[in-house]
Amino acid sequence: MSVLTADLPVSRSLPGWAGTAALLAVAYVAVPIFGTSYLFEAILLPFLALSLAGLGLNILTGYAGQVSLGSAAFMAVGAFAAFNFNLRVESLPLIASIALAGFAAAAIGLVFGLPSLRLKGFYLAVSTLAAQFFVQWALTKFSWFSNDSASGVIDAPPLSIAGVAFEGPVGRYLFSLTVVTVLTFLAYRLVISQTGRNFIAVRDNETAARIIGVPVLKTKLLAFAISSFIIGVAGVLWAFAYLRTVEPAGFNLDRSFQILFIVIIGGLASIRGAFFGAALIVVFPLVLSRLGSFLLGDIFDSGVLDMSQRIVLGTLIILFLILEPDGLVALWDRVRKRIGTGLRRS
Amino acid sequence: MQAMNYAFGGLGSVPFPPDVQEHLAGLDARTDDGGARHAEARDSALSLSSISLSFGGVVALTDIDISVRKGEIRAIIGPNGAGKSSLINVISGVYRPDRGHVRIGKNRYQQVPTQKLARLGIARTFQNLALFKGLSVLDNVVAGRAYTVRSTFLGQIAGLGRARREEADARDRAGRILDFLHLGHVSGRLAGTLPYGLQKRVELARALVAEPDILLLDEPMAGMTATEKNEMAGFVRAARDQYGTTVVLIEHDIGVVMGLSDRIAVLDYGRKIADGTPEEIRADQRVIDAYLGVASENEDGEGI
Amino acid sequence: MSDFDWLFFIEVLVGGLLSGVMYSLVAIGFVLIYKTSGVLNFAQGAMLLFAALTFVSLTERGVPFALAFAITFAIMVVIGIAIERTVLRPLTNKPPITLFMATLGLSYVIEGAAQLIWGTQVHGLDLGIEDLPFDVGGVFISQFDIFAAVVAAGMVAALSAFFRYTRIGLGFRAVADDQFAALAIGLRLPWIWATVWAAAGLVALVAGLLWGARVGVQFSLSLIVLKALPVLVLGGFDSILGAIVGGLLIGATEKLAEVYIGEYFGGGIEGWFAYVVALAFLLVRPSGLFGQKLVERV
């Protein structure tokens, strides 16, 4: 299966799952022991939420070929839905609120996915902007969503599952990590299934897909729903685990573009791509700011940082599209292969 | 057996393959004309009646009647722009004809429902490759079983019994088709990375794995070398012989068609100008004027 | 309906149509590039910001209007050609959506560069036209709106004439029609592309000045691209006429909706209303008002 082999290159001596298992062991054991609170708050928590959002968008855009510019809207739906389910339905476990939030995002995603049945390419991309603007407007406009809070900014509830509280940066990290791990595993199962194959078929040649009997319309809507579900849950993690507040402003068009950039830079149609892309997106501003203030000193204030960030990010996108359209994942695999052959030779 | 050949004598003697002849012999052996017509109707796999099609004033097809019998290899030929591809797009429901209808088995359609095509027992290939470039060769062929999938995506994620069985069955069949078409050695490669000739063959595999009653081939040999063409012709014939599939073949290259087909219809400027056995077509003056002359000129000026 | 205030309705409608002209102007910048290279240039908004910011920074430093205009125009042409050479040409034959994403990246670069060079503060821009209401038979119309509409209309007319009557304009139309055929008959594509990008730069400059005088020259100018997108969807990405009619339609319905039904939604609907109108329209006619309907070839 190409998706499988392309995605998890089996190393010569170890079975394919060994790398993943090792990675999980490090993430669950080593990182909580050695990680500083800065690492969790500034890097790992946003990284996990954005990775999940990138994963969701990659299912829609990378696998099913439907470009969306409204991902942040679905994050917002997820975050606000989880907040409201948790607030308004008594004794509903948090995990149920999160799942319901995912379904709410999926439902909204389904509605805004309807144009995909008739529209393609740019027209569809533009129509997904409608989701972005409409959702952001609705959440700002109707204070019911934010429980009539005067500032529109609301505190997220504490994270706990089955009586176990996930407090502090490490607790929230472990919570996010678990959610991301479970959803990533399910997404992986999906993309190697018949449905995943249908996604790619619709992406690569819609007419041929229809003719061989792929239910094209159903497949597209399913891609929208599943993608929105995952992005919605990512929104919950972003608000509940990372920011600890829920506010519409954070889920703006720039966020949507950011998630699209994660997918492009990381690698379209690759599960790992979302994680690679998110890592770069989260880490590079921090590196840039350190580097900038080290080289330029005081001139490099936050305004300059912000602008140079935009320039570097934009340049990266263009460079990746021109030089490495398959993203960091492809780059990584090539480097690994080269190291592999180098080792064998020596 | 004799009786059957006699019955179809008036329509041009058709060299049926052995298995199909047996099949036909078992169906009806009456010799009178009425019986023949009856047999014709029953054995018709596909027929087009007075199909006309135009694109914003540009006429592509005018009043086309073509019938295809079960188990035959039916070629439709004609110079570039004669409307061959439009015709196959009408049969597969990609285009809706302005007038006329398509009969598939017992059903009549003004526009054939494309999304049901596979379930109606029709599979097709495309003139310009239409493989799924991001899937492996094997997965492309497995995708040809898409119309049989009943399991839901949740079942597939969970790996429930039905999803598992469907997947195993599809892989099994795909594997066999790949071997049949001598594609086993490339089954793991991404379809988009194969040479052109092989991609054409993968398309044939994807169509065959659906086990269609009718196979529509849109210029399956276009752009191939002579060796590849002969190979492809062999595969088409073998597919018909092995699976009893009715084949509708669109071709530009008249040479290959003559040896391969049972009956040939010739299109020119969107009209059918001749219809008959290869021998009849070869002798038809209009065909020679409209097509053969052009074709030989084309060979001299290839690349224009 | 006796209570209906027709005068007010007309006032709103005219106001909407006039701002629609401004949308059309931005949208035409897109159409020019889309027609020749098949790219939906998302960076058009950033170009507009860059142009307005450059112009206003020059005049603030004492450069006279005409000179500042000429310098900015020259810079826009250079930027346009640079974009064509360094970003779009290496991506030739890539899927259109890839090109679109590249222009998305480009818009980040240009926005960042514009503000890095000229700063992030809001600049006022005075074109010498006062924004006074103007009484036409009881209907009050903003003088500035009329000026902007006239300039935009003049711009559209000039561009149409250029592409209709000049040699390079004919070349543009040939390329828009069939790139390969145009190449085959010996048209020099780089020249035509350069011209088109220069024209798009000019459109960006004029639109940037008009919008800048309206809302101040600041970062949010680049978001005007978001206003132009529904116009393009409505009018078809490849039709100048569509951009004009689409702009007027969007401008008018948006203002009317804001005034008459906005209150039922609690206001602020102009952010998404245009999109909903365009979408609803698209579901009926997927290729827009004047876009070409393509026959699927398989």
UniProtKB/TrEMBL annotation, chain A:
Top-level taxon in the UniProt lineage: Bacteria
Primary localization: membrane
InterPro entries: ABC_transp_permease, LivM-like
Membrane protein topology class: Multi-pass membrane protein
Sorted UniProt keywords: Cell membrane, Membrane, Transmembrane, Transmembrane helix
Keyword Membrane: yes
Residue ranges of the TM segments: 12-31, 37-60, 67-85, 91-114, 121-139, 173-191, 221-243, 255-271, 278-299, 311-332
Name of the protein in its database record: Branched-chain amino acid transport system permease protein
Organism encoding this protein: Rhizobium herbae
TrEMBL record, chain B:
Keywords associated with the record: ATP-binding, Nucleotide-binding, Transport
InterPro entries assigned: AAA+_ATPase, ABC_AA/LPS_Transport, ABC_transporter-like_ATP-bd, BCA_ABC_TP_C, P-loop_NTPase
Any one GO molecular-function label of the UniProt entry: ATP binding
Native source species: Rhizobium herbae
Domain ABC transporter: 46-294
Lineage: Bacteria, Pseudomonadati, Pseudomonadota, Alphaproteobacteria, Hyphomicrobiales
Name of the protein in question: Branched-chain amino acid transport system ATP-binding protein
Gene3D superfamilies in the cross-refs: P-loop containing nucleotide triphosphate hydrolases (3.40.50.300)
UniProtKB/TrEMBL annotation, chain C:
Transmembrane segments annotated in the record for this chain: 6-32, 39-59, 65-83, 95-118, 138-163, 191-211, 231-252, 264-284
Keyword annotations from UniProtKB, A to Z: Amino-acid transport, Cell membrane, Membrane, Transmembrane, Transmembrane helix, Transport
Domain of life: Bacteria
Major place of residence: membrane
CDD domains registered for this protein in UniProt: TM_PBP1_LivH_like
Family annotation (InterPro entries): ABC_transp_permease (IPR001851), BCAA_transport_permease (IPR052157)
Entry's localization field: Cell membrane
Topology term for the membrane: Multi-pass membrane protein
Family classification: Belongs to the binding-protein-dependent transport system permease family. LivHM subfamily.
Protein name: Branched-chain amino acid transport system permease protein
Organism: Rhizobium herbae
